[in-house]
């Protein structure tokens, strides 16, 4: 007994692949998640206004070690992040080698438009910065969309949004 | 009741010796389970399940005896220094009326007790140094320092020869035990760059020196250091490399800077069971040589071959080395793949891509894999066997592809894209090359390798404006993407 098999059409380049193929022979796209698991662009009206670059705040010249606590508002999950190195915000995808420090999958990151590599957070001289990594649905600081690949300083109590995922940040000095 | 899978090497999975007692097994399990627990930082659910499975069998006297017996029957329990483990993209599949793909990751890992064993292999090495005009200045200075460092790292039980070459070869120091490092160091002082680059000459002289004392007790090896392109003698050099491999002499090739012929040196090293490396700045020569010597002295198996016997309705579409670095393996007619040496601290893994033709339901053996390798100073080669089995059923259960395999495949596909770009380019098909490079760039950005992605886009821009790709960009991409399997953070 055999079943009728059909070629797998790559969603990104249209090449036909034999069933069981995991990476498109033509363009290298990961096939099982290339379709439904991709970050789908959200409807236009939810995108918000374009943002103006913000002034980078400076809190003195001492290198401070900071802890950043983020509270995911829809699930109430709180994550304490050590900011002594860069924090990647996104969704875990082992196939692509993406292992974000802040993985939004458990909070429904896919449904809320969080890209696999969405943004990065880091500190310089005691100031916290967020930088959007050209995500599909954008990163918002206090309701304003930020320009990709530009660092924006944020402070304790600010509201960050990845796609439509809302997070409140608390910053503690790590003494 | 735990299941026994005699195809898996539970001892290797837990990193314990064949005669480890229950306490050792327990200790090893706790350690491993902690390291790979899915909740830990570098967790691996697939591996974690295997660790649990191994523990359940090995801690139970009866299960363990049954397992050992099964292994013995299959010729798997030999006192081998390495283990062979398989990971398949699927273990069950639908029987289809058209061909389908199965990926298998073959891992060759040294056993723990071998790794701990401190006995260092004795080396019989020739260092063949390019001293053409282009090596003048900083390059030759750094090479001298690195070579002196290499001399220091060897002892009276090792043998070394120093050869310099330009248009012709000159033996600076003939093969001799390294009991007096000063002899070699003063020979290095004579190194003065002049003339062109004829790799064949240097290689021939180096091999001649190594042959003087070549034996199965020693690791026989030639290290070639060059910064230039050789003209016209490539085929001779490759023939010589084949001959060397058949005599148990391996060759490694290190290219300094941007001007050497990467494809040629990669081929040379692959044929002769060694490694090729791209050394971007002369100051990195020292570290590369040191690492090479360290690796060589931990050699476990030499002249390792993977024999793949497929079922009649199956063929191999691709065979790749996935670690220590990515490489497309030379496809031989009878499906024997040469893998060179296996070192204690550097596991080798291979990815096989099978195309399975039309099949009906039932459990099938897709392929039988035999790993054959020569142990240093042992008369009989070692043979390890594993089968690739696939169950065809009309209602296959959902199963996920092992993370480790997926990870390797993702990187392999990027490496493959850029390799195809260079191939298309040398065939004169610029549009095809451009599109492969663009695809590679997209995937690289996707994976977070901005640096390599940008390098690919830079070459795309040059190509679309009618220019040639840069030598630097090509090397950066080839050697950058082939190293993607090294764990990233």
Structural summary, described in words:
- Helix content of chain A is 2%, strand content 33%.
- With 175 residues, chain A is mainly β.
- Chain A folds into 2 domains: 7-36; 66-173, Tumour Suppressor Smad4, CATH 2.60.200.20.
- In chain A, the strands form 3 sheets. Chain A has a 6-stranded antiparallel sheet, with no helix packed on it.
- The N and C termini of chain A lie far apart (68 Å).
- Chain B folds into 4 domains: 1-77, Helix Hairpins; 80-117 and 301-401, Sandwich (Immunoglobulin-like), CATH 2.60.40; 123-297, Rossmann fold; 403-482, no CATH class.
- In chain B, helix 8 (199-213) packs parallel to helix 9 (234-246) and helix 14 packs antiparallel against helix 15.
- Chain B is an alpha/beta fold and 489 residues long.
- Chain B has helices at 10-14, 22-36, 45-58, 61-73, 112-116, 138-153, 181-189, 199-213, 234-246, 262-271, 285-297, 403-426, 430-446, 450-464, 471-482; strands at residues 82-88, 92-93, 100-110, 123-130, 159-165, 169-177, 219-226, 249-256, 276-279, 299-310, 314-323, 327-328, 336-343, 348-356, 362-375, 382-392.
- The longest helix of chain B is centred in the C-terminal third of the chain and has 24 residues, at 403-426.
- Chain B has a 6-stranded mixed sheet, sandwiched between helices.
- The model of chain B has no long low-confidence stretch (mean pLDDT 87).
- The interface between A and B is large, with 30 and 41 residues.
């Amino acid at each position: 007994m055999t079943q009728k098999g059909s070629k797998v059409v790559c969603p990104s380049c249209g090449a036909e692949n034999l069933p069981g193929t995991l990476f498109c022979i033509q363009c290298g796209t990961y096939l099982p998640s290339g379709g439904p698991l991709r970050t789908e662009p959200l409807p236009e009206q939810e995108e918000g206004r374009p943002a103006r670059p913000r002034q980078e705040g400076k809190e003195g010249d001492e290198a401070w070690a900071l802890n950043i606590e983020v509270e995911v508002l829809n699930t109430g999950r709180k994550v304490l992040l050590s900011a002594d190195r860069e924090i990647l915000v996104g969704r875990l995808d082992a196939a692509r080698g993406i292992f974000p420090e802040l993985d939004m999958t458990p909070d429904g990151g896919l449904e809320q438009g969080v890209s696999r590599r969405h943004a990065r957070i880091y500190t310089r001289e005691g100031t916290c910065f967020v930088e959007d990594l050209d995500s599909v649905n954008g990163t918002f600081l206090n309701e304003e969309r930020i320009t990709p690949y530009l660092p924006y300083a944020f402070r304790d109590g600010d509201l960050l949004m990845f796609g439509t995922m809302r997070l409140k940040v608390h910053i503690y000095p790590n003494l | 009741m735990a299941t026994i899978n005699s195809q898996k090497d539970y001892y290797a999975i837990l990193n314990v010796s064949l005669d480890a007692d229950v306490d050792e097994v327990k200790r090893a399990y706790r350690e491993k389970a902690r390291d790979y627990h899915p909740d830990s930082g570098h967790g691996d659910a697939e591996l974690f399940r295997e660790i649990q499975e191994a523990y359940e069998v090995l801690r139970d006297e009866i299960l363990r005896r049954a397992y050992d017996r099964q292994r013995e029957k299959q010729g798997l329990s030999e006192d081998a220094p390495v283990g062979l483990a398989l990971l398949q993209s699927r273990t069950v599949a639908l029987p289809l009326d058209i061909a389908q793909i199965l990926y298998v990751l073959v891992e060759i890992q040294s056993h723990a007790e071998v790794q701990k064993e401190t006995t260092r292999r004795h080396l019989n090495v020739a260092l063949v140094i390019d001293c053409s005009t282009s090596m003048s200045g900083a390059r030759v200075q750094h090479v001298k320092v690195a070579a002196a460092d290499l001399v220091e790292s060897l002892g009276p039980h090792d043998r070394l020869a120093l050869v310099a070459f330009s248009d012709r070869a000159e033996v600076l120091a003939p093969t001799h035990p390294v009991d007096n490092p000063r002899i070699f160091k003063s020979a290095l002082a004579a190194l003065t760059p002049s003339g062109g680059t004829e790799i064949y000459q240097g290689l021939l002289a180096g091999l001649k020196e190594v042959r003087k004392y070549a034996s199965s007790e020693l690791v026989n090896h030639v290290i070639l250091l060059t910064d230039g392109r050789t003209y016209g003698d490539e085929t001779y050099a490759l023939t010589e490399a084949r001959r060397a491999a058949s005599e148990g002499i391996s060759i490694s090739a290190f290219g300094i800077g941007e001007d050497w012929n990467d494809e040629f040196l990669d081929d040379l090293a692959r044929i002769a069971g060694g490694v090729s490396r791209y050394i971007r700045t002369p100051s990195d020569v020292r570290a590369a040589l040191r690492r090479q010597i360290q690796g060589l002295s931990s050699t476990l198996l030499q002249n390792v071959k993977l024999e793949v016997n497929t079922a009649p309705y199956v063929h191999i579409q691709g065979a790749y080395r996935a670690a220590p670095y990515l490489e497309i393996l030379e496809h031989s007619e009878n499906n024997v793949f040469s893998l060179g040496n296996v070192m204690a601290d550097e596991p080798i893994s291979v990815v096989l891509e099978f195309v399975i033709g039309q099949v009906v339901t039932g459990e099938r053996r897709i392929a039988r894999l035999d790993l054959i390798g020569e142990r240093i100073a042992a008369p009989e080669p070692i043979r390890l066997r594993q089968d690739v089995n696939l169950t065809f059923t009309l209602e296959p259960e959902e199963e996920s592809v092992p993370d480790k395999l997926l990870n390797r495949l993702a990187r392999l596909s990027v490496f493959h894209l850029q390799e195809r770009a260079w191939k298309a380019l040398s065939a004169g098909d610029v549009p095809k090359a451009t599109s492969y490079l663009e695809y590679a760039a997209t995937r690289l950005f996707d994976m977070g390798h901005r640096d390599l992605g940008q390098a690919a886009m830079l070459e795309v821009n040059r190509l679309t404006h009618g220019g040639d790709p840069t030598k630097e960009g090509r090397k950066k991409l080839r050697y950058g993407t082939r190293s993607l399997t090294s764990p990233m953070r």
